[in-house]
Amino acid sequence: LQNKYAQELDLPAETMDGKRIHLYLNAGLLSSLASEIANGADGVGLYRTEIPFMLHQRFPSESEQVKVYQQVLEAASDRPVVMRTLDVGGDKPLSYFPINEENPFLGWRGIRLSLDHPELFLVQLRAMIQAGDEKEQLHILLPMVSNLEEIDQAIAYLEQAYNELKNDVNKNIVKPKLGIMLEVPALLYQLAEVARRVDFVSVGSNDLTQYLLAVDRNNPRVSTLYDCYHPGILRALKRARFDCWQYNLPVSVCGELAGEPIGVILLVAMGYDQLSMNQGSLARINYLLRRVSHSDLSELLQMALTLTSGQEVRELVREYFESRE
Ligand code: PEP
Ligand code: MG
């Protein structure tokens, strides 16, 4: 079956009625990135820098980081790469930086930690900018943002890092585009203000679901409650897409939902046209998109939005798949 999907990987992901969907990779390890990119991805939609940090015994130095980030950008040839600043805390521990909290998912994680440790944050930003060099390939993404002040502070650090490097190292160096993860629900209601500050957003549906439903994304006891197809989640995603369009803010989705066939159908129907997923989903999603029409999906979404549970939504989309086989 994988073979059947893989045969079409070279063809662009485009619906039967001509809507082009850009498919990107989620990555963290370098080993196979080059071949994964060559295999039909439009770029890297989420590079999780906490993964190389976890492979070290201490915080990697600026030059060590530059090397890793350069390799990522090279592996991507000239395609865009969205590099996320350190997202430790929550479910992502760093052995050499232990954090003990009662509610780690509501605690010190992502951008909160970076802003409390500017010496670490500035090193990471400097390393990214240097790796990006004079090309426009690199985009920087901030995780776990929960208010506008955090964005403003991060922008100030990015400016500082960029100005230092421009003056001391290379005056032609490019300032990367900046985006934030949309994964804390309150920000869904501040997209107008977000759009005035950043160049793009990326919906982290894993954490967004966890926080909208108040269900731990990793706790097996409540795993049946962790439902990305909960009608409330779907409405939030639809509203986010609409607001981003309204405020001219480019938006992608990089949570697991963007690599699941049912999720992709619903997201594309909402108007999302940039999806970032694990390498294992890429061929299948490309294959699927080439066999649906956007107008059919819009009708399906209208129906899905009248349903009352995630279970019903899944059944509806499965029936649609079966009717087409
Ligand atoms: C997300 O939260 O959806 C996401 C992509 O980030 P992570 O899974 O790394 O928390
Ligand atoms: Mg997340």
TrEMBL record:
<protein>
    <recommendedName>
        <fullName>phosphoenolpyruvate--protein phosphotransferase</fullName>
    </recommendedName>
</protein>
<comment type="similarity">
    <text>Belongs to the PEP-utilizing enzyme family.</text>
</comment>
